[in-house]
Amino acid sequence: MAATNLSSFSSSLSKPTSLPLNSPQTHVSLPSKTLQKPSFFSHKASFSHTHKTSLTVSSKNPISEFFTTNNTNPDDHSVSFDDDDKPREECGVVGIYGDPEASRLCYLALHALQHRGQEGAGIVTVQNDVLQSVTGVGLVSEVFSESKLDQLPGDLSIGHVRYSTAGASMLKNVQPFVAGYRFGSVGVAHNGNLVNYRSLRAKLEDNGSIFNTSSDTEVVLHLIAISKDRPFVMRIVDACQQVEGAYSMVFLTKDKLVAVRDPFGFRPLVMGRRSNGAVVFASETCALDLIEATYEREVFPGEVVVVDKTGIQSLCLMPHPQPKQCIFEHIYFALPNSVIFGRSVYESRRRFGEILATESPVDCDVVIAVPDSGVVAALGYAAKAGVPFQQGLIRSHYVGRTFIEPSQKIRDFGVKLKLSPVRAVLEGKRVVVVDDSIVRGTTSSKIVRLIKEAGAKEVHMRIASPPIIGSCYYGVDTPSSEELISNRMSTEEIREFIGSDSLAFLPFDSLQKLLAEDAPNYCYACFSGKYPVEPRELKVKRVGDFVDDGINGSLESIDGGWVQAKPKSELEVSTA
């Protein structure tokens, strides 16, 4: 991470941008040389992604050479839905300043962000200069009740939802975290992942720090506590100078709300305002919509926004390179009604479908989607192709995390619990099936089989993203590179594996042409294997495992899951 020029911060702090909280339209002036405008898509779109044909674990991702195989599949009668062949966004954050019902609004905003994490939720508020916290395992509606929210008075709050694989020691790792240090208390909620977490933690422990969790977020609190900088916001700057990777964070003190976004802007963070002047930060604009807050702008990459009784101050966190915003927010993670990185997610996905129809046409009778994430791209495909879109798969929204399978095995049991084919739509038809991505290919093969068993004459898969060949290290839960089917098979080999009559991905160059002049502002590591921030410690994602994000156990339990990083002199940070 680039070194911080502290002299620029001194000048910024001596003349902060201060704005009244009750102003309906706030425009924060930022240092023009370091902070860039939020990026926007353009409506242009074409690229052929090459594949190696070896069926062995011959990696297209340069980092996967470190990975080892450890495939275990216990034979039991329970079906887990953690493994549904999709990447997982691990967190959503909310921050509210200046509303007497801050905790209740935070609760509602977390509801709107529930798709970003379903395993744990928490809210921290301030009353009489004391930070009060309620956290729990489960959905937002399961963690919070009327009585719980009554325990969280005050006009400042931060909240967090997170996804993780299940584990025994979940509760202590549910955010927001609250810590006391010699100058008071601070709460933090974090979306992202720190790639140098282990080395920072080891250094802190060598100096006597005691950790209560196995989450990388706790490192940030320790760095703030030991910082010698003044005032508090400069402690945050000092801490962020030492961490590397992805972070969109909201901090809470007895009188301040602080929002921070990493210099690359990997994960989204937006700012809005309610009619009473309350300032709101959230991971997505859909959270603003629910609580009737007006979207104002993004928190810029490398920016610190401080909200207190004097107004809003905007500071440059540190000099930063080209933004590298996560393209998968537009492909899969965000809700279609959100605006992410300055562009409607719905419009992006619709255009992805149109590009597929233009560049990978096929004679068909009906277009269907794999719900829910493939619906908008399927609508775009159908409109461009002039073929009717119909609901050929019905998704059950009432399936829990696991389900007990009868002793007599039912083929494709997990998929059948979630998706039901509509025979009247599919029987005797040439069907185009649009999905957002293929990760392992296991679910796709089951869906193809399900549709053919319902009587479809032909099944043509169209994927509204390029092939995924690399694991993510910036806050997304993805399998090992060995498990990523596009990392070891060609498109034709994948087609044979899933059993479809044809298969086409969104071409990588078409995606970049659609983004036009903003194409360099996005991270494509999952498609290219080129990482904007090279992991200093590479966590091995073994076959059958998802990344341990700090919820499933002690640090000792994952000691074997790390490899030695390359020497700094050998690291080549990609600009691609």
Mind explaining what this structure looks like?
- This protein is α+β, with helices and mostly antiparallel strands and 576 residues long.
- Helix content is 24%, strand content 23%.
- The protein is built from 17 helices and 29 strands.
- The strands form nine sheets. Strands 5-4-6-3-12-11-13 form a seven-stranded antiparallel β-sheet.
- Helix 6 packs across helix 7 (232-242).
- The longest helix is centred in the middle third of the chain and has 15 residues, at 345-359.
- The model is unreliable at 1-59, 61-83, 165-169 and 539-576 (pLDDT under 50).
In total, the number of strands is 29
Instruction: Work out the strand percent.
Output: 15-25%
What's the average pLDDT? 80
- The stretches of 5 or more residues where confidence is low (pLDDT under 50) are 1-59, 61-83, 165-169, 539-576
- Helix content range of the residues, please? 10-25%
**Count of discrete alpha- or pi-helical segments spanning 4 or more residues:** 17
Which sequence of strands runs across the widest sheet?
Answer: 5-4-6-3-12-11-13
Provide the gyration radius in Å.
Answer: 23 Å
Morphology? globular
Q: How many strands, which pairing sense, and closed or not: the largest β-sheet?
A: 7 strands, antiparallel
> Alpha-carbon distance between the termini?
17 Å
Given the helix and strand composition, which structural class is it? Answer: alpha+beta
